[in-house]
Each structure stands twice: as C-alpha cells, then as structure tokens.
Amino acid sequence: MTNVKTNSAYAKQSFWERNKQSGGYLLRKVIGERAVSIIRFILLFGMCFMIIQPILNKISVSFMTEQDLYNPVVISIPEHFTTANYRLAAELISFKEALFNSTLISLTIAALQIAMCTLVGYGFARFEFPLKKFWFACVILVILIPPQTIASSLHLHFRFFDVLGLSQLITGQTINLRGSKLPYYLMSAGCMGLKNGLYIYMIRQYFRNIPGDLEEAAYVDGCGTFKTFIRIMLPQAKPILTSCFLFAFVWQWTDGFYSRMFLGNTKLISTGLSRIVDSLGAYIQRINGVKTTISIAYSNCILATGTLMIIVPLIVLYLFAQRAFVESISSTGIKM
C-alpha cells in the first residue's frame, strides 16, 4: 500500500522535479530517446527518398513538353503541362494490344509456374526419394546460373524439336517451335521457366515449417497423400503461393530475354518498351517525311513515360495483394 502511494505521488510531480530527484538521468534518457527517433526518421526518410525519387522524376518529366526539358528554370514542375507524351507512348508500343497480350501471357505463365513449382516444392519438403540432395542442388543451380548461359541450347532445342526422335522417324524432319508460345509454356510446365528455381526453394521452405502433425492427423482420418495435399497443405500455403504468383507475374511482365526468344512475334509491353526509342525515330520520320535526329532528352522523356505506363498496373496489383505478400515474407523461414 505504501509503494502504491509513493508511485502515485511520484507520478503527480512535474517532469523537472522527477528529473532533479534522479540526478538528471530522466532528462538524459528523454534526450537520448528523442535523438534516436530523429536519427531513425532521417535515415528512413533518406532511404525512402532514394527509392522514390527516380519515380518522382519520371512522373515530372512525363508531363513536360520538349521545350520544358531544355528550360534551365524548369526542374520538377512543368511550365507547359501536357499529356501528349502518354498518348504518343501508348501509340508507339500499341498499348491496348500489348496490355492485353502481356496480361494474358503473364497470368497463364505465372499460374502454370506456381502450380508446377508447388508440386515440386512440396515433394522436396515432405518426401524422401533417390538422389534428393542432387536434384535439389540442381534447383539451386537453376537459381544461380543466368538464363543467357543456355540461350544457344534453348534456341537449337526448340528450332529442331523432337521427342525421342519420333518426329524425324515418322516425317523425316524435326519440328520448328520457334516463333510460337508453346516452348515457353513447355519450359514453365517443366519448372525451367523464368525464376522457377527460386519459387521451388521458397515453397519448399514454407512447407518445411508447417508441422508434420497436420499431415499425420489427416492420414489417420483416412486422407490419402493427394487429398491431404489439396485439402490440408494448400490452404496453409496461401501466403507463399500468393507471393510467388506476384513474383512470377511481375518478372514475366517485365521480362525481355525469354519474351524476345519465344514470344518475339507477340506484341508485349516489355518488348515494346525496349524498342520505344527506335519506334519514336520511325514515327517522327513518317510524320515529317525526312529522317530527323531526335534529342536525347526527348527520347528519355518518352522512355520515362512508357516506363510509368508499365509499372502502374503492377503498383495497383501490389496494393490489392500486399497483406498476403507481407504475411508470406514474415512466415517463410530458412530451415535447412
């Protein structure tokens, strides 16, 4: 009872009275906490600004006319505000058609990759089979080795595609799959698509952290392996599957290597953006009737505008899926 009265009387004292009783310790503690908070705020603000500042510059430049680009007075706020750059960029990359194709291909490829990688990742996490460590080492190699290393092999393989020599035996020639979407879907179905090794690794780590008692209880209740996987394990893995799907969609959305190799005849946003400067030169030449040199600043302006048009759908996607994305990152551990 005495301690309660003492604490109550101490709490009613002013800050300076309590600081005097503590010999100045309370003031030093408050100053230290405030200083740490200010330093933390400055560091976080600086890091965020470093990340966001290039995007803010692109937004500013995208609304400038060519006259503003060379005006030393204009820095961030356009003097002659215009949306013509967006209309021009949309025309150069055939935005509506490219947006539809990119959305369709990214969705189907991402869904196929995650479906196959989930099966493989679950197998690595829960089952024992011959040469398991060797095959998982191959998965790590898929992550480490850049796809450009096997570009020539992929080109030759799908240019002269044959399954066990059956096509050449029957028809006398191989099948040319170049220029079609089929090779990329085949690679994704075989877990050799873009970043598939990383998805297998992430899903494996997630399943390894799920207690095995859940599966054992399902087996006791009469569930088979496949039914347990569908009804017990998949619902538990929604966060990591959402994150991997987002990664797969975004990487496919912005991919240039596989898109040029397998989808070169299809208008995509990523390939259209990579050629937007050349398309701008051809467009200006067609309008003026003569070959015209395009300024670097204006080329960069149109490129920045096209880049913004590409990343806006991704930002919207992440805004809707951010909760599941953060949950999966926080719950996926590194369990070897």
From TrEMBL:
<feature type="transmembrane region" description="Helical">
    <location>
        <begin position="237"/>
        <end position="254"/>
    </location>
</feature>
<comment type="similarity">
    <text>Belongs to the binding-protein-dependent transport system permease family.</text>
</comment>
<dbReference type="GO" id="GO:0005886">
    <property type="term" value="C:plasma membrane"/>
</dbReference>
<feature type="transmembrane region" description="Helical">
    <location>
        <begin position="134"/>
        <end position="158"/>
    </location>
</feature>
<keyword id="KW-0472">Membrane</keyword>
<keyword id="KW-0762">Sugar transport</keyword>
<dbReference type="GO" id="GO:0055085">
    <property type="term" value="P:transmembrane transport"/>
</dbReference>
<feature type="transmembrane region" description="Helical">
    <location>
        <begin position="98"/>
        <end position="122"/>
    </location>
</feature>
<feature type="domain" description="ABC transmembrane type-1">
    <location>
        <begin position="99"/>
        <end position="320"/>
    </location>
</feature>
<dbReference type="Pfam" id="PF00528">
    <property type="entry name" value="BPD_transp_1"/>
</dbReference>
<protein>
    <submittedName>
        <fullName>Multiple sugar transport system permease protein</fullName>
    </submittedName>
</protein>
<keyword id="KW-1133">Transmembrane helix</keyword>
<keyword id="KW-1003">Cell membrane</keyword>
<keyword id="KW-0813">Transport</keyword>
<keyword id="KW-0812">Transmembrane</keyword>
<feature type="transmembrane region" description="Helical">
    <location>
        <begin position="296"/>
        <end position="321"/>
    </location>
</feature>
<feature type="transmembrane region" description="Helical">
    <location>
        <begin position="38"/>
        <end position="56"/>
    </location>
</feature>
<dbReference type="InterPro" id="IPR035906">
    <property type="entry name" value="MetI-like_sf"/>
</dbReference>
<dbReference type="InterPro" id="IPR000515">
    <property type="entry name" value="MetI-like"/>
</dbReference>
